[in-house]
Amino acid sequence: MSDLIEHGPQQDLRISLVQTELVWQQQQANRDRLAELLQPLAGQSDLIVLPEMFTSGFSMAPEQVAEPVDGPTTDWLRQQAAELGAAITGSVATDLGGRYCNRLLFVSPQGEVQYYDKWHLFRMAGEHQHYQAGERRVIFGYRGWRILPLICYDLRFPVFSRNRQEYDLLLCVANWPQPRRHPWRTLLQARAVENLCYVAGVNRVGEDGNQLPYSGDSMLVDFKGEPLIDRPAGQPFIESTALSAGQLAAFREKFPAWLDADPFVLGDG
Question: 9-257 belongs to which homologous superfamily?
Answer without folding.
Answer: Carbon-nitrogen hydrolase (3.60.110.10)
